[in-house]
Amino acid sequence: MRKNVFPVGTFKNKTVMKHTEDSIRAVKKSLAEMWVLVQGQVEKAVQALLTGNAELAHEVIGREKLVDSYELAIDRECENFFALLNPVAVDLRMMLSIIKINNNLERIGDFAEGIASFAARHPGVGVDQQLQEKLRLREMTETALEMLNLCKTALAREDGKTAGKVFLRDDTLDRIHGDSVDILAGYIREHPNAARECLLLHSAIRRIERIGDRCSNIAEDIVFYLEARVLKHSALSEGAVGGTENGKE
Q1: Cys staple from 236: which of 39, 215, 240, 248, with CB 3.0 to 4.6 Å?
Q2: Is 72 a domain residue?
Q3: Where does residue 246 rank: exposed (0-12), middle (13-18), buried (19+ CB within 10 A)?
Q4: CA distance 121 to 157
Q5: Neighbouring residues of 73: CB distance < 8 A, sequence distance ≥ 6
């Protein structure tokens, strides 16, 4: 009788590996779909804010529940992965990071809805062009979207250097947000009847800044997954991420 050349455990290990790879692929696919949805929400919310496009704003508000459903579905996929496959090492770090990234994306979706709500309250009235320029609103929104895209690229390419670029962009958002209070206060002095709208506008600006903070969180999670380093609550020195970038928590 011919002997079995392979140990019995070999086939079992191959089956587990195949199941692990398939599960990881499925979770990543769901996360990528959610990312496209959330990025679209932010883009549309920003456009609605700048132009006063109420129809676009209501579209963002109406799709918020879809973002929530993606978050719940990805959470379930991750829970099943832990329960069935008991991951270790890099697979464990990856799934822990995906859970946190998933939560951060959902919160970014919430911020997009909040930004869209400003436009929905002021249909047909975009932010005054001169005020937009003083507030550097377009630069701020473009920076936030760039950060979100950098995070997506860093995760897809498993590139810590790209993740590190996110932190510097967050500094830009913080500066613009910090300057906005005095700019809006000056505008209110000149246009006292616009006080309520300016307060609501500042709330929208704050949400854009918070999108940047969440992108920084995602970048930290990516570095944790790739390099097993925890950056949360720590100031990064020059070259700490990817060898060339510096940043902040």
Answers
A1: 240
A2: yes
A3: middle
A4: 40
A5: 30
Domain containing 99: what range? 16-247
In this structure, are residues 70 and 36 in contact, taking their beta carbons and an 8 Å threshold? Answer: no
Q: Is residue 126 part of a domain?
A: yes
27 neighbors 77 (Cβ within 8 angstroms)? yes
Residue keyed to tokens 């990805």: 74
CA dist 16 → 11, 108, 138, 188 (Å): 9, 35, 49, 64
- Number of domains making up the chain: 1
Tokens of 77: 């996929």
Write the CATH number for 125: 1.20.58.220
The 3-state DSSP composition of the chain as helix, strand, coil percent (nearest 5) reads 80, 5, 15
237 is a domain residue: yes
With 0.70 as the threshold, say if the pTM is over it.
yes
Per-residue pLDDT of the chain (249 residues; tens, 9 = 90+): 555 544 544 445 666 676 778 888 899 999 999 999 999 999 999 999 998 899 999 999 999 999 999 999 999 999 998 887 777 788 889 999 999 999 999 999 999 999 999 889 887 677 888 999 999 999 999 999 999 999 999 999 999 999 999 998 999 999 999 999 999 999 999 999 999 989 999 999 999 999 999 999 999 999 999 987 777 766 553 444 444 343 333
Tokens of 9: 């455990």
* CA–CA gap between residue 90 and residue 92 (Å, rounded): 5
